[in-house]
Design a protein that fits this description.
By secondary structure, the protein is an alpha+beta fold. The protein has three helices and four strands. A four-stranded antiparallel beta sheet has the order 1-4-3-2.
């Protein structure tokens, strides 16, 4: 059974840091337009991946991409904790009783 954890990004409009993590990001996103959504999956191994949620947002007279959240998926608690450590985010509080 896979473990999933979604966390919101504090700066969804600034995703310059994600260009290093997602090869060919701009080509995958393509041109922003009204009501678009892209889910981009980045695998870490066969059992772990991060899925980035990109949405479009109206800014002045044009549309821009924003990355609102990242979903971490792992095979078990240990794998999920490895991903939270990788992304430097706090571990889920409801799993704090588990040792990694």
């Amino acid at each position: 059974m896979a473990m999933r954890y979604i966390f919101r990004r504090s700066t969804p409009e600034n995703y310059a840091d994600l260009r290093q993590q997602i090869p060919g990001l701009d080509a995958q996103l393509n041109t922003p337009a009204e009501n678009l959504r892209r889910l981009i999956r980045v695998p870490f191994n066969t059992m772990r991946y991060a899925q980035y949620t990109f949405l479009t947002k109206k800014k002045e007279n044009s549309w821009v991409w924003i990355c609102t959240s990242i979903e971490l998926v792992a095979e078990d608690e240990k794998g999920l904790f490895a991903l939270t450590d990788h992304f430097k985010i706090p571990r889920p509080s409801h799993l704090s009783h588990i040792r990694a």
